[in-house]
Amino acid sequence: MTTNILGINAFHGDSSACLIRDGVIVAAAEEERFRRIKHWAGFPSEAIAWCLKDAGISLADVQHIAINQDSNANIGKKVAYTLLKRPDLSLVLDRIRNKRERDGLDVHLARAFPGQTFTGKFHAVEHHVAHLSSAFHVSPFDEAVVVSVDGFGDFASAAWGVGRGTEITVDDRVYFPHSLGIFYQALTQFIGFPNYGDEYKVMGLAPYGQPTYLDAMRKIVLLQRDGSFKLDLSYFRHAREKIEYEWENGSPSVGTLFSPALEPLLGPARRPDEPLEQRHKDIARSIQAMYEEAFFHLLNTLHARHGGDAVCVAGGCGMNSVANGKITLQTPFKRVYVQSAAGDAGGAIGAAYSVWHSLGGKRGPTMNHAYLGPGYDDLAIATLLDAHAEAIAAAGCSVRHVADEDELCSLTAEAIADGKVVGWFQGRMEWGPRALGNRSILGDPRRADMKDILNLKIKRRESFRPFAPSVLREAVPEWFELDGDVPFMMQVYPIRQEKRSLIPAVTHVDGSGRLQTVDPATNPLYHRLISAFFKSTGVPMVLNTSFNENEPVVCKPQEALDCFLRTKMDLLVMGDTMVVRAASTEASTQ
Question: What is the DSSP string of 283-332?
């Protein structure tokens, strides 16, 4: 009998759903891609509906639904904290109210899917157990140390242990109110990036500074002999005060996490509308350095305890690609796996696999690609373009069909080499926050001005934020100082000194690059495109950034066309069709 398990991450940021069938992932997507609101939080009804449709089933065909939170987990720690620390009563009441709102999955399903009946079993999977499963159970390792680090989930901020076969043994956890994720988020707010998910801006800004505030950071984060960490809570508000947390049906919003005590230590907090000064860049570098110090302290302690050469990393902090890229340099671990949705969205997969293995299911295939979302065939694309022919023509664009894939890749590679900005929409949408060659904007990594062109004319984001190279897997050793499979853009590697001047658009100020390795077995068309660019330029990579403009990554052809028409992209390639601007745009000539 076929076993269908629906996994969901609900009621907080990056809500998502996945479906696994007999231990194999069939479909997975984040709710934000359908709602068009970044980091959408709430019940992922649209993602669930799409997963069921893609699998060709209804709720009646699902035997198990797993969610990555368990309100009964760590209950003893919650009670003890409340009794001993006596936090603000409004904080306790707010958390109880939030938990009640999150209960009743059956009610949410009935509301979202009228006429369909779920007769299976619900499973609540503790937050960090789901994180650990999301990394280990889809990894290529039969045995590995497993680590989850994030803000908070089920009253814990970190967990670690060992995975063997289908079993994961949890050694220990770090509990509320101590959290590396909260440290990073609070300090991100402190230097003027207040939005949920802005931590990646600190990573992008850090190389422009020096770690001059590291000693101050060591007063904030206190490393423990057992490998764990604590916070000096005088610098934070979340332990005793009610912090604004808005998670329901929209973009998440988090109130100020740091306390006034931080300003005597680091200087005045920066408002979002104030200019970035060198002090802020130095603080950013020090935040990153402190996180790495704590992270590697934990990993080195775990290696001393368990040995082995493999580690799997998950949790929101697992998105810290700069730290991930240094694991093999700063610890004895030689093999690293971080799945494409390391953050809370990935908990949907972890919850589903936790249930699958609790039922005695065998290990499924390794997740070596992230192409698990919606896809659209050439007919759907052609129908859309025909319906918008007038608008396309009015924008000075023409439509060209190219049936031969080699010709399609050759023409696209030629456009990139000519300095054009290309929207590339192919196959199934990526699972996780990174565009990995199916919902991407592509450019020439050799052009020193390409970063500014994209930031100012297309992406409209801060100038310090870097862009990533998509690299032919076989070319990595020649261009980077480290080698390895990095299919999900989750590790930053140093670019070889002699190569940096050849690819300035994807070389960060410190000489590194957040690479994505492209393998012909997992994305043959994208590999063919980059190979065509390599053949004509001698550079085995293209600049790759997400296909969006201050919005979630595009999901549907309509969204790709809309984004293309309202920006200054030169070329849109959807399936076997090219939409070409008749004249060189300002973006491609500056």
Answer: HHHHHHHHHHHHHHHHHHHHHHHH--SEEEEESGGGG-HHHHTTHHHHSS
